[in-house]
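Q: Could you fold this chain for me?
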Amino acid sequence: MISIRIESMKLRILSVVLLAIAALYVGDDLSVRYRIPKSRQPFGAVTIQGYDAISEKNNKTEFVYEEPVTVTCVRSLFPHLGYQTCWYLSRHAEQRINY
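A: Sure. Below is the predicted structure, expressed as C-alpha cells.
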C-alpha cells in the first residue's frame, strides 16, 4: 500500500517537473518570436575564434588559427529558430576542431 503511494507521488513529481520545463520552453519561444518585452532585441552577435588542432606523427599537435567569425545568436535560455544561445556562445568563444 505504501509502495503504491510512493510510486504515484514519484509519477506526479515527474509530470509536474516535465510540465514546468515545457512551459518554460514555450514561454521562452514566445518571448523570442514576438519580442516580449518590446524593448529587448531577440538576436545578438558573438565573435567566435576557431582553430584546427592537427595531430602529427611525433605526438605533437599543430594549431592553425582561422579568422574570427561573427555568429548570430538568440538571447534566450534555449536555442530557437536554428540559432544557438548567446550565453552559451560567449562562454565558448574558442572552438577547436580536431583532425
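A (continued): The two ends are 58 Å apart (CA to CA).
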